[in-house]
Design brief:
about 300 residues; alpha/beta; TIM Barrel; 8-stranded mixed β-sheet; two-stranded antiparallel sheet; 11 helices; 10 strands; globular; binds iron/sulfur cluster
């Protein structure tokens, strides 16, 4: 398979075929994110993408049941590309059950309800959206979305929060499943509690099928690292990060979402359904805070 630059995918796509539809992220401005800083965003040539699918079909054939379309916000692909990719995937892999990709709220809002429904009919089944926080000041500070564009579209007050709620509703109306990702520590110590509470509020309002929490690592070379060096951002300590997680599991009230903290960045791997298992997970976090449960050691953590 041909891949350009580093490739990222969610933990739950560990066994998926990765097809690169775009290179990089069309936004590429979230202050903590180092994933695609070395790439200039572009839509990959469609013939190349289709050739990659053909090559994968020759190699893996019936073993492929899940495909993740990379890179950072692949939903932005034009409909002509998506339609051709989804049709070719369906023709190539008889056992195909799921096609997914990362998406920004603006990507979802940029497609019409009919377009999203068409993608779902052709086999796109799951979108990973990463609001990272539900606290509007935190979302602004981490540059989570193109604010000027959202305000230009008439969203005021809490435009980034609202855009994620709107995007989630639109995706679900089209029949797409949704995984929402939040980032412990994104508010720094300054907005730690607001960040945790706001994230739980947004998780409730987005009402996704899957929820995940990752833990922020300040990566050298990012704008957030510059802020940290200038004493304008301080990551909560491990106790503070676990406390954010505790608030989140206790307060998030989606209808019924599978929640995981199995990403390598986390200190405490948890899994359960929210809200059903919120109290049990909060108790496990209390045990971890009391030192009764071991945490993932620093050397074993990853981005
Ligand atoms: S939208 Fe995702 S990939 Fe793009 S800069 Fe933000 S975190 Fe990174």
């Amino acid at each position: 398979m041909r891949y350009e630059g580093s490739i990222y995918r969610p933990p739950s796509e560990a066994h998926s075929l990765l097809i690169q539809g775009t290179v990089g992220c069309s936004w590429n401005q979230c202050v903590y994110c180092s994933m695609y800083r070395d790439k200039t965003f572009r839509v990959r040539d469609l013939d190349e993408v289709l050739a990659d699918i053909d090559a994968a079909a020759d190699t893996y054939g019936s073993r492929v049941s899940k495909v993740f379309v990379c890179d950072g916000d692949a939903l932005i692909l034009p409909m002509t590309h998506w339609e051709a990719i989804l049709v070719r995937l369906r023709e190539s892999f008889g056992a195909l059950k799921r096609v997914s990709c990362y998406a920004m709220a603006s990507n979802v809002l940029g497609k019409s309800p009919e377009e999203l429904a068409r993608l779902q009919q052709l086999g796109l089944s799951l979108l990973y959206l990463g609001p990272e926080s539900g606290d509007e000041p935190t979302m602004r500070r981490i540059a989570k979305a193109p604010l000027t564009a959202l305000e230009g579209d008439g969203r005021h007050g809490t435009p980034i929060f609202d855009a994620h709620v709107e995007a989630a509703a639109k995706a679900k109306a089209a029949g797409l499943a949704l995984s929402a990702i939040f980032l412990l520590g994104a508010g720094g110590i300054e907005r730690s509690e607001e960040h945790a509470r706001g994230s739980a509020r947004l998780a409730t309002a987005m009402d996704p099928d899957f929820l995940a929490a990752l833990t922020l690592t300040v990566v050298p070379g990012t704008p957030l690292a510059d802020r940290e060096a200038a004493d304008r951002f301080t990551l909560p300590d491990i106790g503070g990060l676990l406390s954010e997680l505790r608030v989140f599991v206790a307060e998030a009230r989606p209808t019924d979402a599978l929640f995981r903290t199995n990403h390598a960045s986390n200190y405490l791997p948890l899994g359960g359904r929210l809200p059903r298992d919120g109290a049990a997970m909060a108790a496990a976090i209390d045990d971890a805070l009391d030192g009764k449960i071991g945490l993932r050691p620093e050397w074993a953590r990853g981005l």
